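Trying the structure run again after the queue cleared.
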Amino acid sequence: MLTMTEDKPLMVINTPLGAMDQLVKGLANLPEAGAIVKGTAIGHGKMALYVDVPPFGTGIIFGREYLNAREIIKAINLGETITGKVVETEGENGYIELSLKEAKQAIIWSEAKKAQELKTIFELTVRNANKGGLILDWQGVDGFLPTSQLKAEHYPKVPDGDRDKIMDELKRLVGEKLSVFIIDTDSQESKLILSEKNEGSAKNQKEVVNKYTLGDVVLGEITGIVDFGAFVKLEENFEGLIHISEIDWSLVENPRDYFHLGDKVQAKIIEIKDGKISLSVKALKTNPWVEAGGKYKKGDRVNGVVIKFNKHGALVSIEEGVAGLIHISEFTNEIDLRQKLELGKTYAFTINLFEPKTQKMTLSLAK
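Done. Tokens:
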């Protein structure tokens, strides 16, 4: 039996879940983590919101997820329909743990993908400018409009190619509204690339792309650097993208540590798709996993440096460009992990999985 009020936590009598929830859970397949579900707000608790999610049972928004969406939750009335993203199928006390903020983001990126496919035109205001292009806001997401994707009347006409003068020209567009459409999305990288070129320009771009072949090594100029990679001008008004994962075999946190605007760079074409070219710099370097394949195997004891923490655990490098994960499940919790491992320090590990062909490695602390 469940009882609730607006000012008291939802109370559970005798069992972690009410009898109806127990029955429902026996009859319905639970939603998968990451699924978007709809439900009805049925109770406010201290730092918690309870949601009826038919046919799965009762969901809860609490802890960090509550804090992330507390302003939204304050405005939610009992009986109101809300949309949430499943964080944990069977969390604390058996409730389905939900996230409002992640659900909102998932919906936004789903809409962005659909808009990309439909080539929907948006009137967006230029919020900022950098030497690689313009930043526009689309539903709270930063959209990047590379210089190469500007219409001729907006393209900075600077005869000597002076970067400062180009920046001055781009700044003139801040505050103006441009008609743009989405040409690339990546929710994991929070990447939204825009263009204001018309269909005729798109056709011309495809003609340019047809000059290139997969595997070609090209020379270009760095024209834009963003968190997810760098844009390379291959021809006038045409750029390719070096994704952050294709810059180096080692972990790359910031592309700006590797490139500067105006740099000349050699890269290999690794994908040609939808009129776009993807480039790789690391493909021209020796793959360290090839040599590592002859040096390491499952069960080996190795020394490794902790180079990054993420939600799955810690990333550990055993040599330049060869890194693997020690999963958070090897520890009591995230606090325990960070107490036993410090960023930048070297520890002894045991290799649990080593697959150089797929560049996968998992580790555990050596006993």
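The chain has four domains: 2-105, 119-197, 208-284, 288-365. Worth checking whether this holds up in the mutant runs.
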